[in-house]
Write a structure and sequence with these properties.
AAA+_ATPase; alpha/beta; 10 strands; membrane; 6-stranded mixed sheet; Rossmann fold
Length: 244
């Protein structure tokens, strides 16, 4: 199994703060890797470092064997990596359609969007078709999250980084996202997913890296972590079984 993304000895400073302390883990191609850990463990900083929003002060981030270190975020995005931040990153004053056009590098207007791919996205998220001409700011929280994910996949991407997509969402919406991510998985899209909802982590994850205090303290199969409550307690301070 080949790795599409590898972090080795990554340190990240934000101002005077040393946030990541030698992060090491790999993301196998075509599968879902969960990045778990308590609040403040460094998960979001790790995603932002991969995307070049913050530069590593030491160590390296390699995508398909090539270093991303020192590259600007737009240049990283053009290599086939998409990022869905925790705040979703949508443009509230623009319509759903306009948000999608902005996310599509190959389209200058809606008529140039890949209609076959757009129909596939509408199958995943029917609400987006219904509210196609609505301002994105008027969507519900769940619909905004669907739009954020749809923007990331409006064109084929090899790797998608997603930061806590289920936060604050109703169980039915979370299930919809799980179905969408499983469909991406079937298409061999690689996903690195930060998530606090352990039902979602267990349903989607093939692999897991657990962070604590800016370091990776555990790597392995998601299934093994899901079945070992003592390991869950030690690494995360809670049990996956309590979050079904």
């Amino acid at each position: 199994m080949s790795n599409i993304l590898e972090l080795s000895g990554v340190h990240t400073h934000i101002g005077a703060y040393h946030i990541l302390h030698g992060v090491d883990f790999a993301v196998p191609a075509g599968e879902v890797t969960m990045l778990l850990g308590r609040n403040g463990a460094g998960k979001t900083t790790t995603l932002r470092t991969i995307m070049g929003l913050w530069q590593p002060s030491q160590g390296d981030v390699r995508f398909k064997g090539r270093s991303l270190k020192g590259q600007a975020t737009p240049d990283i995005a053009t290599q086939g990596i998409a990022y869905v931040p925790e705040n979703m990153g949508i443009f509230s004053d623009l319509t759903v359609k306009e948000n999608m056009v902005l996310a599509a590098r190959a389209a200058r207007h809606a008529g140039e969007l890949d209609t076959k791919r757009l129909d596939w996205i509408f199958d995943l998220f029917p609400a987006l078709k219904k509210f196609w001409l609505y301002p994105a700011g008027k969507l519900s929280g769940g619909q905004k999250q669907m739009l954020a994910v749809a923007r990331a996949i409006c064109e084929p991407r090899e790797l998608i980084l997603i930061d806590e997509p289920s936060k604050g969402l109703a169980p039915s919406i979370i299930q919809n996202l799980i179905s969408a991510f499983n469909e991406l998985k079937r298409q061999r899209t690689t996903i690195l997913l930060v998530e606090q909802n352990f039902m979602m982590a267990k349903a989607l994850g093939d692999h897991v890296a657990v962070m604590d205090d800016g370091r990776v303290v555990h790597r392995g199969a998601m299934r093994e972590l899901a079945e070992d409550q003592s390991l869950q307690q030690r690494l995360l301070g809670l049990s996956l079984g309590a979050h079904q």
